[in-house]
Amino acid sequence: MQELIDKLKAEVNLNDEQAQKALETVKNYIVEKFPMLEGAVANLFGGN
């Protein structure tokens, strides 16, 4: 997940906290809309 955080920081000019919050928001949205993917999302995003 750190690689994606670094990419957000570099390409979208987010700071570390903003990048982490953006990923957390996306993760929560996916799980909310597609609960059957919760395990896959946890694996992809490091289970946070």
Helix content range: over 70%
* Secondary-structure element order, N to C: HHH
Radius of gyration (CA) equals: 11 Å
Sheet/helix structural class: mainly alpha
Strand percentage, roughly?
under 5%
Q: Quote the average pLDDT.
A: 92
Number of strands: 0
Our count of domains comes out at: 1
Low-confidence stretches: none
Molecular shape: elongated
What separation lies between the terminal Cα atoms? 10 Å
Largest sheet: none
Which terms summarize this structure?
48 residues, mainly alpha, 3 helices, 73% helix, elongated
Protein described:
The longest helix has 18 residues, at 16-33. It contains three helices and no strands. With 48 residues, it is mainly alpha-helical. The protein has one domain (2-44).
In short, what is this structure?
The chain contains three helices and no strands. The chain is an all-alpha fold and 48 residues long.
Question: What's the SSE blueprint?
Answer:
Layout: H1 2-11, H2 16-33, H3 38-44
Helix pairs in contact: 1-2
